[in-house]
Amino acid sequence: MTADSGYHSEANARYLFEQGIDGYLADNLFRKRDPRFASAARHMPKREDESWSRRKARGLYTPADFRIAEDLGHAICPAGKRLYRSGRHCRIGGFEAVKFKGAKRDCGSCEQRTQCLRHPDRTAIRQVAVFLGQLPGKQETYTSRMKRKIDSGQGRHQYARRLGTVEPVFANINHARGLRRFNLRGAAKVNTQWLLYCLVHNIGKLQRYGGLEHRGAKAEMKS
Fold it and tell me: Could you tell me the residue range of the domain that residue 25 belongs to?
């Protein structure tokens, strides 16, 4: 079973492992860890005014863009400003981390705020957390186990199959059939509308491809 990042949670990952289901549950950053998508950014649309643009109004700089001092005493942001260490041995999701914060005098007047802050209109400073590793004696989370599984060669192979099986169905129903939102309320009515669109989708596939084997057999008989 495969599921996109909208279903990613500790509870769902735990359920898959405990029930013995061979599941591949994607998280929000699994493509960033995949070396096959290292150059994906250059293929993204450049026009932000287009509705199909994949760019989002969020910070573009990631912790990888910050230079961390070897002694973990400070960090340098992409604009060349110094961030001071605000916490050591912090516990975040079972991992040890070091936190850094920028100064208001630097972040407030920085010309790169829109590239650095997700909400530059209401966020005063940039904060960065650097993870040092899992806390000793801490049991590994099911989320970590799922990340390791989906990052494996087998995991990437299995999840890649989703692009040719599940995603085209959603794309056709959403873009070609125009179902971008449900028009009814209640689980029963929403499910009925969804099944009607799926029915139309399947009828279209039968109309296009249902007779290919029959036509192919007739062609072989003629030849």
Answer: 1-55+139-165
